[in-house]
Structure formats: structure tokens, C-alpha cells
């Protein structure tokens, strides 16, 4: 499958020029009379580009930019020139909401990639839905974003027709983490901590349900402020509970000091978290990270034949690490490009006046072999790719993949 994916991806990258060319300004650099006017299609991008989570956001932005550059270089959509409009949400829902309005007010924006944080996405979903503007996140894992708050009881209802993602849900990730810890790592007693944010709380809840169903015991549970860096009080509670591991629902800026203080207290147990923790920054910020565990969506791009070209081009163009969401962001951006191509092909090679609505309709038809594998979406807008990977920080203070599986929710 991977060899085939690599061939298809190469085809996309070399003939992808047939995909995109469509929306507003004249291409003044094109002197070919046969080329005619090119339209500019803007793809919006939203993530934290400053602040504690900027390492993740910058890797995402670079990957989205690379997809746009590739589409333009290969003339993926005939007659269309793509442009990326990146905005910094600072990981703040209020800023994300303001950014959503900026994208909506620009008629050339036909789709938006991002954000990183599920809580930020909650401030953007309704405005985008009202404007029929496609949103696709490579990082949002909050299950309720697509399936509603009733998903735990089996009452799944799509919330917004405009929201899609290339990342799988916290339901999948939390269950996968619990199963890995209980069955593979042979850990039966866990202390549970979350940062009370949409992402962290949802991940911890999913983990707890599955871990206890398997027979595991939650020996204690706490909530922390994600802005805090002093966790001595909660660490002292963990020490007295006989936990074999701590599971943390949250992101790396707080996870790193929590883990270090846990080890320094004398508790020689690993901290485990999700994709918000599994950043290259985590071991850099944590002197005691060795042995800690993390999960992330998809298989490591370094192990995928389908990602070789992407990795090569990324490293050639950018000095910053692509981080956890690089491949998924490239695929998310390319999904919008594919949707634009469908619309242009269906309209005699031109963008229609109702391009936003048409691009949104085309998203349900999008299916291609991308960097991370086959990219397509189910009836909720969720990715059909449920591959998950468990990682561990090795003695070289680097994340090392330990186990991958296409995981289906229990």
C-alpha cells in the first residue's frame, strides 16, 4: 500500500498542476497570451504562530505553505494561482473568532486550514458555517466538534457542515492510549490529570472510560491550570497513591514541567499524554523526559514511503521542525486544493460565482492518496484514516515510535 501511495503522491506532486487555478487577481508575471487571466484562490490558515505553542503552529504553517507552493509550481488547477493567508490565533479562542471574521470578509478565501486548538475551533465553527466557508483542521481532536456532545451516548449528530479534519478524534486517541498502556505497557494503576481545556478534558475522559473498562484503576484524579508551571502540590498527591503512570490530558508547555517535577519528587513513573504533548519541544523542556509516553494521529511520516517527497521538500525549504502535524496539514491544505479542482473542472475550467458553496459541496467527493495515507471524510467530516501511534522518549531524549495501529473506537 505504501509503495502504491508513494507513486500516487509523486503523480499528484508532478501532475498536480492540473488541480488549482481560480479566484480574483490577474497574474501580471505571465506573458503567455494563451495563459489568459489567472484567478487567485486564497486558502486561509490559522494557528498559534507566537507563544508557547508556536512550534506546532509554525510547523503547520510551513506545511500548508508548501502545499500551496507545490500546487502553483505544478499548475495543479489550470487558471488558478493559490495564495496562503496565515493568521496567528495565539491559541486564544477570542483571537480565533476575530481571525474567522477576517477570512470570511475576504471573498477570495475559499477554505481555511486550522486551527491547532479545539477550544479555538469552537469560536470559529459557527461563523464559518454561516458563511459556507470550508474549514479543515489537521490537529483538532475534540470528538464533539463533529459529532456533538451526545456522542458518548451514541447520539452522534453532525454539528457544522463546513467542518472537516485530517486528525482523528479524542475518542479514538484516548481509547488507543488506554489500551496501549494497559495491554502493551502492562500498567494497571494510573493517576489522571487534565488541564480543563476542551482538548485535554476530552482526551482524559476518553482515556478514563476505556482504561477502567479494561480493568485498570484510576487511583486519583486532578485538574491543573495550563498556565501553571509549578505542580508540586499535585505531584505530592500522585506519590501517595501508588500510581504506575500518570496520564495527562493537555499540551507540552505544562506537561514538560509536570513530568520533570514528578521525577524529581522521587516518583519513578512515566507521564503519558496525547498529540498535544508529543512535540519535539517536550523533551527539550524536560530534563527527565526519558521513558515518557505519547500518542499521535497517523503513522510517523518518516516511516511512510508516501511522505518521502514531502519530507525532502520540507527540509529543503524550511529550517523549523515540521512537528507533529506537518503531514496532516499538507494533506488538509491539499484537500481544499482538490475541492477547488473539482469545482473548476465541473464549471468548464472556471470558478463559479458561488465558489464557496461549490467548494464546500465538493469536499464530500475529495479522496486522494496523500502524505499520511488515503485522505477522505465520513458523514461527520471526520477523517476515515484512524491510524494511531504510541511513542516513547528514548535515551537520546528523542521521541521514538513504539507501536502503530489503525484503531477503531470500542
Automatic annotation (TrEMBL):
SUPFAM superfamilies: Periplasmic binding protein-like I. Belongs to the leucine-binding protein family. Signal peptide: none annotated. InterPro entries: Leu-bd, Peripla_BP_I. Residues 133-153 are annotated as: Disordered. Residues 133-146 have a biased composition (Polar residues). It comes from the Bacteria. Residues 40-396 form the Leucine-binding protein domain. Keywords: Signal. CDD domains: PBP1_ABC_LIVBP-like. PANTHER family: AMINO ACID BINDING PROTEIN, LEU/ILE/VAL-BINDING ABC TRANSPORTER SUBUNIT. This is Branched chain amino acid ABC transporter substrate-binding protein.
Amino acid at each position: 500500500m505504501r509503495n502504491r501511495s508513494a507513486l500516487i503522491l509523486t503523480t499528484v506532486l508532478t501532475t498536480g498542476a492540473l488541480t488549482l487555478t481560480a479566484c480574483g487577481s490577474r497574474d501580471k508575471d505571465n506573458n503567455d497570451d494563451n495563459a489568459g487571466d489567472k484567478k487567485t484562490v486564497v486558502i486561509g490558515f490559522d494557528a498559534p504562530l507566537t507563544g508557547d505553542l508556536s512550534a506546532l503552529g509554525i510547523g503547520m504553517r510551513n506545511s500548508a505553505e508548501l502545499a500551496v507552493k507545490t500546487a502553483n509550481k505544478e499548475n495543479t488547477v489550470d487558471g488558478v494561482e493559490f495564495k496562503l493567508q496565515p493568521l496567528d490565533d495565539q491559541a486564544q479562542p477570542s483571537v480565533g473568532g476575530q481571525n474567522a471574521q477576517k477570512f470570511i470578509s475576504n471573498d477570495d478565501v475559499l477554505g481555511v486550514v486550522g486551527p491547532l486548538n479545539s477550544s479555538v475551533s469552537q469560536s470559529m465553527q459557527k461563523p464559518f458555517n454561516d458563511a459556507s466557508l470550508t474549514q479543515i483542521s489537521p490537529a483538532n481532536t475534540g470528538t464533539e466538534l463533529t459529532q456533538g456532545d451526545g456522542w458518548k451516548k451514541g447520539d452522534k449528530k453532525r454539528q457544522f457542515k463546513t467542518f472537516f479534519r485530517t486528525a482523528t478524534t479524542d475518542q479514538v486517541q484516548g481509547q488507543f492510549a488506554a489500551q496501549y498502556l494497559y495491554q502493551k505497557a502492562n500498567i494497571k494503576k494510573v493517576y489522571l490529570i487534565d488541564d480543563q481545556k476542551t482538548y485535554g478534558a476530552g482526551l482524559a475522559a476518553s482515556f478514563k472510560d476505556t482504561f477502567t473498562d479494561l480493568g485498570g484503576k484510576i487511583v486519583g484524579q486532578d485538574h491543573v491550570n495550563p498556565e501553571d508551571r509549578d505542580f508540586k502540590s499535585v505531584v505530592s498527591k500522585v506519590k501517595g497513591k501508588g500510581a504506575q503512570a500518570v496520564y495527562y490530558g493537555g499540551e507540552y508547555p505544562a506537561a514538560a514541567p509536570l513530568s520533570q517535577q514528578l521525577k524529581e519528587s522521587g516518583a519513578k513513573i512515566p507521564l503519558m499524554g496525547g498529540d498535544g504533548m508529543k512535540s519535539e519541544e517536550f523533551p527539550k523542556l524536560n530534563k527527565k523526559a526519558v521513558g515518557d509516553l505519547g500518542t499521535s494521529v497517523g503513522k510517523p511520516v518518516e516511516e511512510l514511503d508516501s511522505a518521502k517527497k514531502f519530507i525532502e521538500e520540507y527540509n529543503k525549504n524550511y529550517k523549523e521542525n515540521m512537528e507533529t502535524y506537518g503531514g496532516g496539514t499538507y494533506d488538509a491544505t491539499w484537500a481544499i486544493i482538490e475541492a477547488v479542482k473539482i469545482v473548476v473542472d465541473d464549471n468548464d475550467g472556471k470558478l463559479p460565482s458561488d465558489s464557496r458553496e461549490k467548494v464546500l459541496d465538493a469536499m464530500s467527493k475529495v479522496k486522494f492518496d496523500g502524505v499520511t495515507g488515503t485522505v477522505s471524510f465520513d458523514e461527520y467530516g471526520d477523517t476515515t484514516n484512524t491510524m494511531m501511534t504510541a511513542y516513547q522518549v528514548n535515551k537520546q531524549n528523542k521521541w521514538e515510535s513504539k507501536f502503530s495501529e489503525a484503531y477503531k473506537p470500542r
